[in-house]
Amino acid sequence: MSSTPLPKQPPSFFPTAALDHAAAGIGAGIVNTLCMNPLDLLKVKFQVATTASSGGVGTQIWHALKDIQRTQGWRGLYRGLVPNIAGNASSWGLYFLFYNMLKKRASGGDLTKPLSASEYLLCSAQASAVTAIMTNPLWVVKVRMFTTPADAPGAYRGLWDGLTTLARTEGLPGLFRGTTLALFGVSNGAIQFMLYEEMKGWAFGRRRRRVEQEGGVWDPSVEKLSNTAYTLMSGTSKLGALVSTYPYQVVRSRMQNDPTGATYPTIPETIKRTWAREGVRGFYRGLGTNIVRVLPGTCVTFVVYENLAWALRRAAVAREGRVHD
Fold it and tell me: pTM of this prediction?
């Protein structure tokens, strides 16, 4: 008995659709980092700080940026840019590669088939876990460069210097410090993408019905939503995921910034000491800055990603048309 043939699948620019999404993810990660590096730097600084900050979020951000610019110059605002680009570009590229491979497997090879919310959640969690493990050393170097002035004794001079110094002085445990917490952070990405995919599916469903009601032909290969829609959906999904999972980021940053493990040796001890010294507010330190930094960054990432993925699909469709001609 023969199996039911799959519907016609959207063409891809690269050999597989997953590679298209990986390329779009890399491009989105680079653009996001170039735009948001100063706020990313502040987020980490606030996370590892243990003293209370005065003033509102906007005031804290403004004074912190002015202080960095005054003491370290404009280059200080972009300290750690290379490991940040490497981390973000590789993370988004690998994530979208694995995520789309897993979605294809879950759909039985049919890229046009929508999945359930639980299937999106599982695919996102698996892709996030693999990506977190593979890119963890880049994040350790980034955190330490963000929290150490360039002229401080023992400061990393760059990405390669940070990785080699870390491997030489702390070995594999240093390179993968905070990995357990990064894996816990899988829940953040999984929740975000489940919400995002559900909202995107709903929006495309409405658009398809409208096109068909007007007598048009729906072609998923070339259709896209507006940048405003992508912005709203990505921002809303990220906000929901961020608020529910933020404390692990504070714990991870503190552990990664403590090379000897003297202050924050283990996850339970870090949680215990943070609670004892700062209470529940300690677990949300830097949240305001993180929201200011992450929401625009997320929106930039998804708008760039969706447009690049769409452009690659359009290029593949055009190329396919030339071949058939």
Answer: 0.79
